Amino acid sequence: MMGGALAEEMKVFTVDQVTDASASTPAHMFRFEPDLLQVPLGATVLFDNFDGDHTAISVKKMAPDGGPTFNFGKLDKDRSVTFDTPGIYGVTCGLHGRFGMAMLIKVGDGPADLTGARAVVPGGRKGAKLSQLLDQLEAN
Ligand SMILES: [Cu+2]
């Protein structure tokens, strides 16, 4: 491996997958933290599933051409993805997407193709959440 431990560390981002029984709405009860993540090209994102009850799945079509897609089950040990293709990636949980458990990852410094991403947003609460995150990304 090239590069020191520190350089490697700076390119690894952890996303918590939360189950919060005290939350007042289902969308808040099951969530990714953060739900909007911007990372440099080549970064690795780790979906921690620390409470053991979440999957992490690419949202259909919501990834740039040639970019990685993934489908991590509840029991998978290695739940990390390296993003070598810039663009916008949608992620959901197969179990809680219907409650709005979804997030966006934007990879790279260049301008994001928001129009392309909006065109493939799915329906339901998951889609509503992703649309809201695209609005946030646009406002940044
Ligand atoms: Cu979940």
From TrEMBL:
Keywords: Copper, Electron transport, Metal-binding, Periplasm, Transport. The keyword Chloroplast does not apply. It is found in: Periplasm. GO terms for molecular function: copper ion binding; electron transfer activity. Binds 1 copper ion per subunit. SUPFAM superfamilies: Cupredoxins. It comes from the Bacteria. Residues 27-107 form the Blue (type 1) copper domain. Its main location: periplasm. Its cofactor is Cu cation. It holds the Pfam family Copper-bind. Cu cation binds at residues 54, 93, 96, 101. GO terms for cellular component: periplasmic space. This is Pseudoazurin.
